[in-house]
Amino acid sequence: MKNILNPLIWVMLIVFFGCQSKKKENSKPVVEKDLPNIVIIYLDDLGYGDLSAYGATELTTPNIDALADGGVRFTDAYASSATCTPSRYALLTGMYPWRNKKAKILPGTAPLLISTEQQTLPKLLKKKGYHTGIVGKWHLGLGTGVVDWNQSVSPGPNEVGFDESYILAATQDRVPTVYIDNGNVVGLNPNDPIEVDYDKNFEGEPTAISNPEMVTMKWHHGHNNSIVNGIPRIGYMKGGNDAKWSDIDMADHFLGKAQAYVKEHKNKPFFLYYAMQQPHVPRTPHPRFVGKSGLGPRGDVILEADWCIGEFMKTLETEGVLENTLVIFSSDNGPVLNDGYYDDAVEKNGSHTPSGKLRGGKYSLFEAGTRMPFITYWKGSIKPGISNALVCQMDLLASIAKLIGTQDNTTDSKELLDVFLGKSQDGRHDLVLEATSRTALRSGDWLMIPPYDGKTIEERVNIELGNSQEFQLYNLKEDIGQTTNLAETNPEKLKEMIEKFEILRGK
Ligand code: NG6
Ligand code: CA
Known about the structure:
single chain, 507 residues, alpha/beta, Alkaline Phosphatase, subunit A, Arylsulfatase, C-terminal domain, 2 domains, 11-stranded mixed sheet, 4-stranded antiparallel sheet, 23% helix, binds 2-acetamido-2-deoxy-6-O-sulfo-beta-D-galactopyranose, binds calcium ion, hydrolase, hydrolase activity, Alkaline_phosphatase_core_sf, Arylsulfatase, Sulfatase_N
């Protein structure tokens, strides 16, 4: 009895238990039980007017509409950019893409655009104990320069924060037309190695120019290099025959991977970036969806994407995680009908308006280039509603940081958690928008586009780019369609916008 009270023994006991609890802390990140799963569903080239939830009348997208009806539907949400690579860069890094001169549409052979030292959304989540995964389109470069597709390809998503990745390297219309599973080409036969080149063809390999008879989807502009599954692509590829994906099965394939990811990781907080390939070219709906929209393959793949989202949501429900999962839905840039193939997108569009009431489209500094459908859905936690707050996809990084009890002040991302959760309408005041390396300023209700040389319309895709020799100033609250340039009639506002723009752009 006396021994127990011996101070020396007490000291030893305290040191022992102290060490034990420290050990626990160091070996395993502390995961709060109630941290929600986070899923970002990101479409490719889906426009502001492409969903019935956003006013489309010629198409019905019931599953995405269900997210909009049960969540917050944003009317004034932006991608950072009017093309894919920069928007995805901003989404994942929280940085304005124009700060990185290389953030442009990348070929399939481009090196990794995100530095492995850089802050990223998945890294931030990982630190809090999340399991992080990407399924779908990457388009942020791979490797450090010359990629050997027959070896493990690195660095890539796994080196910038994703525990698991199952991706297509660039776009569906670019080689290599293979899936990459955690850095390794899926189904590759070592006796038939893959070679990829964006400058010159491999001797004797057919292209859309040398062998037009092999082509089942005709090219309109670009897209006349190697032919895979009858579809001519951007870039040349040789070998890897067994590894080539099936275009018509791509949607089902990625859906299956996304569902498997949820099933496997449902017991731990997870982050899934489900980056769908629709309705980017080439539009290759599964036969189940062919002809379903009446708008040609572009409409059909939007219906296909909507169906996939419905199936994915069912999986969240059956796996018991629906009420503990924040789902964020959006698209990387505005819509385009003819983006390089004759695929009836123009001919069968009828009275559908992919841009809604907005001016421009993909590649454009006008609103339709960057203003996106954007929905946040969290069953039981987000009160359904509509938000007119100004937000950017880039803001998800700092806002999700807040949600999971951490913070990030190192990027351009603005913490707007309450806005994303529908509890506040107090969004951003200013936002620099980007389209093919040109930038414009959104501030309050106003949009200012500085003068840019270059054509006003890109005829090949039939989209107004936003270029003008004059300053352009629009009041978006009164003139959402950007019909009236107020630069001359409101010089004070113009001056204020130019000054703000120069400060933000660091000029
Ligand atoms: C363009 C392609 C276009 C599309 C785009 C990338 C041509 C002529 N056009 O260069 O078809 O692939 O790049 O789209 O090659 S994005 O959504 O990934 O930014
Ligand atoms: Ca895109």
